[in-house]
Amino acid sequence: MTHQKHFEFNAFAENTYVIYNTNKEAAIIDPGCSTVEECNHMADFIKAEGLKPVLLLNTHCHIDHILGNHFVYREYDLAPLLHRNELILLHSLSQVAAFYGVDAVPSPEPLRFIEEHEKIQLGDSVLEVIYCPGHSPGSVCFYNAEEKKLWGGDVLFRESIGRTDLPGGDYDTLEQNIRTKIFALPDEVEVFSGHGIPTTIGYEKVNNPFVGTISNHTR
Question: Which of 3, 98, 126, 127 stands 20 to 30 A from 17 (CA)?
Answer without folding.
Answer: 98
